[in-house]
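CORE FACILITY INTAKE
Project code: CF-77B
Contact: R.S. (postdoc)
Sample description: multi-component assembly, four entities in total
Requested service: structural model of the whole complex
Turnaround: standard
Below are the sequence entries exactly as provided by the requester. Do not edit them.
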Amino acid sequence: MTEDTATPPDRDLGELFARITQQLIAAERPILERHGLQMWPYVVLASLERRPASTQLQLATQIGYDKTRLIAILDDLGAAGLIERRPDPTDRRARIVSLTDAGRARLRAVRADIRVMEAGYLEGLSEAQARGLRRVLARLAGPR
Amino acid sequence: MTEDTATPPDRDLGELFARITQQLIAAERPILERHGLQMWPYVVLASLERRPASTQLQLATQIGYDKTRLIAILDDLGAAGLIERRPDPTDRRARIVSLTDAGRARLRAVRADIRVMEAGYLEGLSEAQARGLRRVLARLAGPR
DNA sequence: TATTGTTATACTCTATAACTATA
DNA sequence: TATAGTTATAGAGTATAACAATA
């Protein structure tokens, strides 16, 4: 017998993950708003930190977003001085997107607040549980 | 020192959960499709299993969905013979929704396939890790 | 001929308001 | 007057197609 008969019928993994995701997004929204950002613009900044100097198409596929919708976001971020777009010297069709110093600073500030929120969200867990959770999540989510 | 200096900079919890949720939804979609269901209709059936004989409004709030959009879903599920709506004897404005035998059977069949998919998804984890993950997820997601 | 960034268009999904019948 | 279910309408979000410049 490898089954534990004492456990209640499991909930769908999808339901559990979806609910938690929803909670986290709801918790992040006011933080982002306080820093003058929305979800996808923040995702763009975070992606550019990991891979500086991406082309717009690379950026779009990296964050799983549409290249046409990305444009308005980049326009806004550019107008706010958080990113800049330069023509790619090796391919004059492409534009290379990169963080400005202001963009990096903004990202750091937002992330600090999000870290505080996350710590509160995981408050009920032990240190070992929280570490184990992060390890498992990173593994399931895949590289990057 | 309570910090582990060897760990890389953490990714946002929201990003990790969102990616995994996305993967699970993508994995569930073809399963549901094979059984002639979509995401929200399936959620409705699952919710009705937990709380039979809900009123439409209770159902909507339970699954976090809009009561107006729920109607079309209930129409479809009713036409497919998976649920039935009867007037509430104590309040003739309300309609009580419940699973039919066919609905229960469909739900069981879909869930069995989803359980197989989930087992495969967690394949890389040890038994203890998988159990620990479910426990933590259930705790974070909250009751129900 | 194919690709990058862009714009324009159509479509879907979601939110809001309004209606009916009951309470 | 308020509420459950319903319908209709408006808005946001998303997907698709087409275009100019370059490869």
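Facility notes:
- The first strand of chain A starts at residue 54 and ends at 55.
- DSSP finds six helices and three strands in chain A.
Invoice: internal transfer
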